[in-house]
Design goal:
Layout: H1 5-13, H2 64-67, E1 74-75, E2 79-83, E3 91-97, H3 108-126, E4 131-137, E5 148-154, H4 165-171, H5 177-195, E6 198-199
Antiparallel strand pairs: 1-2, 1-6, 2-3, 3-5, 4-5
Length: about 200
């Protein structure tokens, strides 16, 4: 059984300094870290907050993803794919079920479709010129409606490898929207050809 919130906090607090700051993560020493360790500080560890704040869309009647169920660059009867604007990496896409589900309550048939669609999206993103990898993330702390992230890692940027990619994305200048739009359209066209559904991009 997992530690209770107070037990977890006490366990973590035992590793902090007198300001409740944990040591720097080992990841900050990796050569792909966007930060130099010198001068970098960890924020003080705050005590648990219970109950946790509600995520956006806990109530389906107030869910932005549900209201946008027909929007995106591709969709079928049960899924839709959108392009996230204003990012620093070449392309960030998001896959959403059109109906209100989170990962834990996704029916098995939709869960199977999620696996197939995710694989197809990765194939089409990685087929784009000058893209080496498609990273796939599911987090879910901010929104109750399932959303799967696909980040395109640019070719040749070894410093952007791995788990730091979303942080680098936030640091990089905004990628040219017209290039991202064109690449997103290629992914949507490829998905429609390989997995069905229809493109909805202009």
């Amino acid at each position: 059984m997992a530690l209770r919130p107070d037990e977890f906090y006490d366990h973590a607090l035992a590793a902090t300094d007198d300001e409740h700051r944990l040591p720097l993560a080992r990841m900050t020493g990796w050569d792909i870290s966007p930060f130099e360790q010198d001068g970098l500080r960890v924020a003080p560890l705050r005590p648990p907050v219970l109950p946790e704040p509600a995520r956006h869309g806990e109530d389906p009647s107030d869910c932005g993803s549900c209201r946008a169920r027909d929007e995106g660059i591709w969709r079928n009867d049960r899924w839709r794919l959108t392009r996230i604007q204003g990012v620093g990496v070449p392309l960030v896409l998001m896959l959403h079920p059109r109906d209100h589900y989170d990962m834990a309550d996704l029916p098995d048939d939709l869960a199977a479709e999620l696996g197939v669609l995710s694989t197809h999206i990765v194939r089409h993103v990685q087929a784009l010129p000058h893209i080496s990898r498609a990273h796939v993330y599911r987090i879910g702390d901010g929104g109750a409606h399932l959303h799967i992230w696909f980040f395109a890692r640019p070719e040749g940027q070894a410093q952007l490898y791995g788990s730091w990619l979303p942080v680098w994305d936030d640091l990089l200048p905004e990628y040219p929207a017209d290039v991202a739009d064109a690449d997103a359209a290629l992914v949507a066209d490829g998905l429609a050809a390989s997995a069905g559904g229809a493109t909805t991009h202009a």
